[in-house]
Each structure stands twice: as structure tokens, then as C-alpha cells.
User: Which sequence fits this backbone?
């Protein structure tokens, strides 16, 4: 400790000797209080501690903070948040014990030289442990048990059944069982045996099944070894009497006091549990029960019914014949029918009415009752229940109002979607008159979303400009509904107007970005814009966060290389890179929106690869080509789709 570990910041060390049965014995320690070292002198097999975890890892356990592990260990209360190291100590392939080191604060990762130093210390300890023999009587305790005597007095003051247990050691000084030193006067045996039969017996003799599924013995053993109390609810206690297992359900508490263990169990009373369950059910269901003896006039109400009526529990209950006087006048007919069926026809009956309480509050109540007849078939008793259904009543009223409101809202939504579709179709019909140009075929397609509520902002354009170039573009405004549709109209018309200036596609998208950012309420959109020169058969194009065009040449289809350009409307100013592609005769170029390819179960890259296999081979005409793409599209997002295609020659 002084020469090797304190320079590393450690404050305590423990050396554990491993027994043949898996137990651990504290062979030596420093830095821990004598009381703590005495309390941890022996750890039974199968009790999980920091030292035991060190046996299972060849490199040992390097724990940043003991509190994070939840594992008990010597000095846990002295250094609860400190770091711990547990390194196995072995020689010749055999483990002899564990070296455990404690730090006062969380332990950061240590350099390799410190790790090697700790491993060398563990090996040094192993050579000593190899020939180590516990001193005679190690682990044994004197038969005089002052702790147990004090605990007996404590147990006798408890109302719950309690047992005082003391350790029972075998010939080698190891813990073998617990002696039931004392049972208090409230003791209740699950098998009904008297106190004298259980007192003085070994725990596993009196309750051999404690070592079974309930693991009661293991919990008692762990508490004795670590001092950590244990509590459990609804544990099954089983006693074996004449080879017959008799069980009971109990709440368990186990705690160590000095060298003795206090075991408390509270056996569940089925009658009390059911009564409590019934009370909670009545409270949650707002139900009050009653019973009225028609011969003696005696009336019994439970507490819930007094609360329902808004009357103090010391007041006189209301007779059934007086029920109408406490109800709304409009409910007199329903109450009269209820009483006639119950008292005259002597049949079970029910009725709903408005109860008017003394405090002025009106509650909606349902009463259910049944007659009880004596042996001479005379009406003797009426018993039943009242239930407060005010919440249900007002819920039904609110639901009726909500249905009306939803019907009105649904009608408004239908009308809104109809107008949006009309606007969209007016600007972009699903099929447009082909653009007539020599040596160039142009075709466009628009497929609206199948669900009207998903009307979106996809748009396209194909128009010949005054300078002889052809403007080709597709775009997609984020969102759905009339806002997306109107934003689409603004961007489409703005691009048409800007294209007349003769600017290139990159400049056009830069201007369109300013329109999107400043003039459309902050919408965002993607777009691809191209200018085709029929004389040179070249296409200059730029993109704003959109999917690249696809070029089909012969039987091969490929995506055009991406150019830089962010989506429209994201920032106030943006620059867009241009690219130029040389087209040849019979080449087909396709621009499209993501509704053509998007799938929920595939990435965009996979969907684009699928599109390339669908595009080729090229059908006879361009119109057939676009129709084929829409027909065999594997998209499943039910989004709008715009498609623009040109074919040279």
C-alpha cells in the first residue's frame, strides 16, 4: 500500500484468497476500517462482488466508478464513487485469489505502465497466496450472540412475523446454514406449525424449499455477506410438511444487524386483499353500493355512495321510495318505472337520472338494483349500486359536437383539395400538346398523387424561347396542399419570365433562389433547369438539390454527372454550377421528380439504379417511352410525378 499504490493515488487495498468452493476470504487489507474488514472477512460462493468479477476477466476489472456498477464490495460506503480495480492473482495457470484496489474518486483510464505495475503486484500476491492457509477458526463466531439478543427484543416489538437468524458454520468454518434463533409472538408459519417447532431449527431444515425457486436462502446469505438489505413483494413461501408442499404469498424483508439476520415476512391476507381491490374498483368506477331492508327499514350505504350524493357520512341514507325527491323533475317517469319493476314486479331493474345534490351540483347517475326474497317468496331486501356516469354523458355530448365539427371540417378539406387539383391541372395538365421543333421531339407527363390529400408542388415546363433555345425544367416544392401548389405556380412562372433574359441555367436558378427565399413565404424547393441548343445539339444544365437527368444512348442509360447546387430558398444567395452535354441523333434525355423512383424500402441510389434498368431499351416513340416509365415505375410513396423527355433527330 505505502510503497506501490499510494503513489498511484489509491487509498485502500484488499487481498482475497479464493476457496475451492468459490468463496472468497479476506487474507489481508489496508486502508479500510477494522470493522469493515471484519464484516467482509468471508464472501460465500455465488455472491456477486467486485472481487468475484475480477476472477472472470483475465485482464481484470478496471471500474471507473463503483456506484455505476451496483456491485457490493468492501469499503463501498467509504468510497461510494471511487474507482476500483480487481485483478486476478494466479501462478502456473491457477488462480489463487484477487487483488482489489480502491481509489477515492472516479478512476480515469490508466497508462500501460500502470496496468503492468498492477498486474505485477497481483502476481506477487499470488506467490504468497499459493502457500496461504487461513488461521484456525477463521470465519467462526462465538456462540455468545449479543447482537441476536438485541434483535430478539426488536422482533418481539413487531406486528409482522419475524425470525432472528444466526450463522451456522460447518467443520471447516464455512457458512453452511442459518439457525432460527428466535421467532416473535406474531409469527405465522405458512404450514400452520406452532412457534416451538420452528424455533431452534436450521433454516433449510424448517424450510427446505427456501433454496428452490424462491431463492430465499440465497438472499439471506447475500445479506449476511454484504450487509445490503433485501426486500421483495409477493414472494412465494413454501413449507414442506409430511412431504406436502404448503405455500403462501408474502412480502419479504431481510436485514443484517451485527452478526445476526432479521427476516420479516408479511403473509398476504386474501380476504383483506380482495376487500381492498373492491374498494379501489368502486372508487375508480365511481360506484356506490347500498342495501335496504324493507322489513326493518335499515339502510346500509358504503362511503362511495355518501360521496356520490354529496352528503356527510353521518347523515341518514336516502330510501328508494324517496329517490324522486332527489332527482330532476323531468326524470320522475323513469324513476317511477324503475321502482315499479323492482318493488312491485320484483325483478332486477335499472334507470338513469339526474341526481340533484344538496350542494347544488347535478350528477348524471345510473342505478341498478335487484330484489332479495325470503323463503316465503316475500320481498325482504333490495340491494344494488349507483354509478356516476357524468363523465360518460358529457363525453357523449362532446363526441356528438365533435362529429358535427369533423363533418364540417371534412367538407371544407374536400372543397380545398378540389380547388387545389383544379389549380394544378389548369397549370399542368397530365398530358400536354407536344412542342413542335425540327430535329427534336419533346414530350411531358404529369401524374398527380393518388390520394387527394397529398396534392403536391411538382412542376415542369418545356417551352421554346425567343432566342431559339428550348427551356426544359422540372421542380418539386416541399410540402403538400394548396400552399405547395401556389408556391409551385410562382416558381414556374418566375422561371419562364427570367428565361427570356437569355441567361444561362445557373444564373436562372440563382435568381429563382432569390424569388423562393424572399417572395414565397420562405418555401424550399428542388429543381433542374436546362437550355437545349438545337443548332449545336448541346444541353447546358444546372441543378438545385434535384436528381440528375438521365441520358439514354442506344441500349445504355446513365445519369449525368452531378453538378453543385443547393436547394432553392434555403439561403438568401446561392451560386449554381453549370455543365454541358453533347447529344447525338436518337439520344433521349429525361428529367423527372422523385415521385417517379422513391421507395420506402430502398435508398435513393438503389432507386436510381432501378430506373436505369427500366429506361432501356428505348421504345419506338418518345411518348411510348414516357408512358412506359410511368407504367412500370416502382415508386410506393404516392407522390406527384413530373416527367420531361427530349429525343434528338
Assistant:
Amino acid at each position: 500500500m505505502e510503497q506501490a499504490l499510494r503513489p498511484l493515488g489509491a487509498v485502500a487495498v484488499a487481498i482475497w484468497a479464493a476457496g475451492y468452493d468459490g468463496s472468497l476470504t479476506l487474507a489481508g487489507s489496508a486502508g479500510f476500517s477494522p470493522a469493515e474488514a471484519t464484516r467482509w472477512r468471508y464472501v460465500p460462493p455465488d455472491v456477486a462482488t467486485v472481487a468475484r468479477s475480477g476472477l472472470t476477466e483475465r485482464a481484470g476489472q478496471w471500474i471507473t466508478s463503483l456506484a455505476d456498477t451496483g456491485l457490493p464490495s468492501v469499503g463501498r460506503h467509504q468510497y461510494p464513487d471511487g474507482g476500483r480495480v480487481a485483478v486476478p492473482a494466479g501462478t502456473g495457470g491457477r488462480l489463487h485469489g484477487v487483488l482489489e484496489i480502491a481509489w477515492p474518486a472516479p478512476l480515469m483510464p490508466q497508462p500501460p505502465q500502470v496496468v503492468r505495475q498492477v498486474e505485477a503486484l497481483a502476481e506477487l500476491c499470488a506467490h504468497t497466496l499459493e502457500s496461504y492457509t487461513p488461521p484456525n477458526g477463521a470465519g467462526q463466531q462465538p456462540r455468545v450472540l449479543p447482537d441476536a439478543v438485541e434483535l430478539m427484543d426488536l422482533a418481539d416489538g413487531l406486528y409482522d412475523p419475524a425470525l432472528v437468524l444466526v450463522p451456522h458454520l460447518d467443520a471447516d468454518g464455512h457458512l453452511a446454514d442459518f439457525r432460527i434463533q428466535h421467532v416473535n409472538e406474531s409469527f405465522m408459519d405458512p404450514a400452520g406449525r406452532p412457534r416451538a417447532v420452528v424455533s431452534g431449527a436450521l433454516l433449510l431444515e424448517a424450510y427446505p424449499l427456501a433454496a428452490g425457486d424462491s431463492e430465499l436462502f440465497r438472499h439471506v446469505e447475500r445479506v449476511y455477506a454484504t450487509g445490503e438489505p433485501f426486500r421483495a413483494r409477493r414472494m412465494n413461501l413454501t413449507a414442506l410438511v409430511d412431504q406436502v408442499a404448503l405455500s403462501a404469498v408474502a412480502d419479504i424483508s431481510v436485514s443484517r444487524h451485527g452478526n445476526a439476520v432479521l427476516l420479516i415476512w408479511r403473509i398476504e391476507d386474501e380476504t383483506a386483499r380482495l376487500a381492498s381491490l373492491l374498494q379501489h374498483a368502486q372508487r375508480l368506477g365511481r360506484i356506490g353500493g347500498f342495501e335496504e331492508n324493507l322489513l326493518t327499514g335499515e339502510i346500509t350505504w358504503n362511503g362511495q355512495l355518501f360521496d356520490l350524493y354529496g352528503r356527510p357520512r353521518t347523515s341518514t341514507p336516502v330510501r328508494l321510495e324517496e329517490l324522486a325527491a332527489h332527482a330532476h323533475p323531468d326524470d320522475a317517469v323513469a324513476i317511477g318505472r324503475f321502482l315499479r319493476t323492482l318493488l312491485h314486479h320484483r325483478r332486477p331493474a335499472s334507470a338513469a337520472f339526474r341526481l340533484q345534490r344538496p350542494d347544488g351540483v347535478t350528477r348524471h347517475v345510473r342505478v341498478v338494483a335487484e330484489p332479495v326474497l325470503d323463503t316465503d317468496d316475500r320481498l325482504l331486501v333490495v340491494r344494488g349500486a349507483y354509478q356516476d356516469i357524468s363523465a360518460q354523458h358529457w363525453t357523449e355530448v362532446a363526441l356528438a359536437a365533435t362529429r358535427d365539427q369533423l363533418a364540417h371540417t371534412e367538407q371544407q378539406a374536400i372543397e380545398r383539395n378540389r380547388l387545389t387539383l383544379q389549380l394544378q391541372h389548369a397549370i399542368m395538365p397530365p398530358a400536354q400538346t407536344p412542342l413542335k421543333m425540327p430535329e427534336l421531339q419533346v414530350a411531358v407527363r404529369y401524374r398527380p398523387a393518388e390520394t387527394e390529400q397529398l396534392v403536391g408542388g411538382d412542376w415542369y415546363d418545356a417551352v421554346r424561347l425567343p432566342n431559339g433555345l428550348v427551356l426544359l425544367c422540372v421542380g418539386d416544392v416541399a410540402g403538400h396542399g394548396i400552399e405547395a401548389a401556389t408556391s409551385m405556380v410562382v416558381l414556374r412562372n418566375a422561371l419562364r419570365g427570367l428565361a427570356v433574359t437569355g441567361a444561362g441555367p445557373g444564373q436562372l436558378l440563382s435568381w429563382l433562389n432569390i424569388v423562393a427565399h424572399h417572395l414565397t413565404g420562405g418555401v424550399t424547393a428542388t429543381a433542374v433547369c436546362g437550355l437545349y441548343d438545337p443548332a449545336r445539339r448541346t444541353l447546358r444544365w444546372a441543378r438545385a438539390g434535384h436528381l440528375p437527368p438521365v441520358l439514354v444512348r442506344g441500349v445504355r442509360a446513365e445519369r449525368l454527372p452531378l453538378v453543385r447546387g443547393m436547394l432553392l430558398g434555403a439561403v438568401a444567395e446561392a451560386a449554381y454550377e453549370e455543365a454541358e452535354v453533347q447529344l447525338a441523333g436518337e439520344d433521349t434525355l429525361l428529367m423527372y421528380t422523385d415521385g417517379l423512383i422513391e421507395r420506402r424500402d430502398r435508398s435513393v441510389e438503389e432507386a436510381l439504379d432501378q430506373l436505369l434498368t427500366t429506361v432501356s431499351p428505348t421504345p419506338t416513340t418518345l411518348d411510348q417511352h414516357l408512358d412506359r416509365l410511368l407504367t412500370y415505375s416502382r415508386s410506393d410513396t404516392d407522390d406527384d410525378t413530373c416527367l420531361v423527355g427530349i429525343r434528338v433527330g
In short: The two ends are 92 Å apart (CA to CA). The first strand starts at residue 12 and ends at 18. The chain has a mean pLDDT of 83.
